[in-house]
């Protein structure tokens, strides 16, 4: 009788553990939702007017877009190549871009856009490139 109860309890505990563990795709989806509802509305950075996240579940990819009030020109492109990686590093350190997702294989395509939505700078965060941002 005790063995049956133990087996049932063990099975219930295993089921609870399996249900409570989230896979990478679920975490990706939750991150995008949380970013757009809580991080984006209160996000403040120099020249950034709007930020949004978009998830691509089948590709294990998240796209972060930072729209700025900067004009598309060489001076701003050059300046963004310096300031944008610093912003990304700060976001990683604050866990606004979670290392855990990157370590689980999610790629972040991060865009810094001019006022006309053309790309000033683009960075790709994955398991290899994140090391460069954390230096």
Automatic annotation (TrEMBL):
The lineage of its organism: Bacteria, Pseudomonadati, Bacteroidota, Flavobacteriia, Flavobacteriales. This is Lipoprotein.
């Amino acid at each position: 009788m005790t063995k049956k109860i133990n087996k049932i309890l063990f099975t219930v505990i295993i089921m609870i553990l399996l249900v409570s563990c989230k896979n990478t795709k679920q975490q990706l989806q939750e991150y995008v939702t949380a970013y757009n509802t809580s991080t984006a509305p209160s996000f403040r950075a120099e020249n950034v007017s709007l930020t949004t996240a978009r998830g691509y579940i089948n590709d294990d990819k998240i796209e972060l877009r930072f729209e700025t009030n900067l004009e598309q020109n060489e001076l701003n492109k050059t300046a963004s190549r310096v300031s944008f990686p610093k912003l990304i590093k700060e976001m990683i350190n604050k866990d606004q871009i979670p290392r855990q997702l990157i370590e689980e294989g999610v790629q972040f395509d991060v865009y810094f856009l001019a006022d006309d939505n053309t790309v000033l700078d683009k960075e790709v965060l994955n398991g290899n490139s994140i090391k460069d941002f954390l230096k």
